[in-house]
Design goal:
Length: about 250
């Protein structure tokens, strides 16, 4: 009876997580910039501190820089990242049997805070690249913007995952490694969730709306699929060396 109750309880939590995520996605898909000030306002405040730039809110447009060269609009809200972070943290805790009903709101708050931080870094970086008129050989402005977004957002997602792992190790008293190999497959959770929210959901939405463009989607997919793997690879190598300096084989 207890085992059956535990299974139903875990299933109910998973459904709650998915329902909350779907609710956020639905809200974000139809939200105006005015309805997103709860995430754009603190982001803009931190960007002003970091960059020294000044922004003013304009109704139905967003936060416009004082020189009118940069607009922090709806697309800068990062709610998709918040959904991704919430899903990853919640499912990781649920999988380990550590997610209580009371912790779900806490995970949501942590995901919100991480979103503000990631947004601040991304927008500040974009402003820096804009002011320096930086240009990468072979990359258009849109490709550079996409590259920057993937590196920063997945980088923050990876950081959250590593912090979660460290917290887990400390909780179970495993401050030392178990002596096994560090494999890229250990990062499967953040990868799968990131791919699902950045490729799966947009693809399903585009097909549903009849707006699917194969060429644009393939280019976007190439960036999304490759860059996270390139970010994970050096971390796997470093952790492999730390866990067993004598063994540098089979880290994948």
């Amino acid at each position: 009876m207890n085992v059956k109750y535990t299974r139903y309880n875990q299933l109910a939590k998973l459904l709650a997580i998915l329902f909350i995520s779907l609710g956020m996605k639905t809200f974000y898909s139809n939200a105006s910039v005015n309805e997103l000030r709860w995430v754009l306002a603190p982001t803009t405040f931190l960007v002003e501190i970091v960059t020294g730039r000044t922004f003013n809110f304009e109704m139905h447009a967003g936060y416009m820089s004082s020189d009118r060269s940069f607009l922090i609009a709806t697309s800068c809200a990062g709610v998709n990242f918040m959904i991704t972070a919430f899903l990853m943290l919640s499912i990781a805790k649920l999988w380990r049997g550590q997610l209580t009903w009371k912790r779900i709101p806490l995970v949501l708050v942590i995901s919100y805070a991480a979103t503000i931080a990631a947004n601040t870094v991304r927008i500040s970086t974009a402003l820096h690249l804009q002011s320096d008129r930086w240009n990468a050989t072979g990359l258009s402005a849109n490709q550079l913007h996409r590259l920057e977004g993937i590196v920063i957002y997945f980088g923050f997602l990876l950081l959250l995952f590593l912090l979660l792992e460290r917290t887990q190790n400390q909780t179970i008293g495993a401050g030392r490694t178990t002596g096994g190999l560090v494999r890229i497959s250990q990062f499967i959770l953040p990868l799968v969730i990131y791919y699902a929210t950045t490729l799966g959901l947009p693809l399903a939405n585009a097909v549903y709306r009849g707006e699917f463009a194969a060429k644009a989607f393939l280019e976007h997919s190439a960036f999304v699929l490759l860059i996270p793997l390139l970010l994970i690879l050096p971390i796997a190598l470093i952790r492999q060396r730390e866990s067993d300096p004598r063994n540098t084989r089979n880290f994948v």
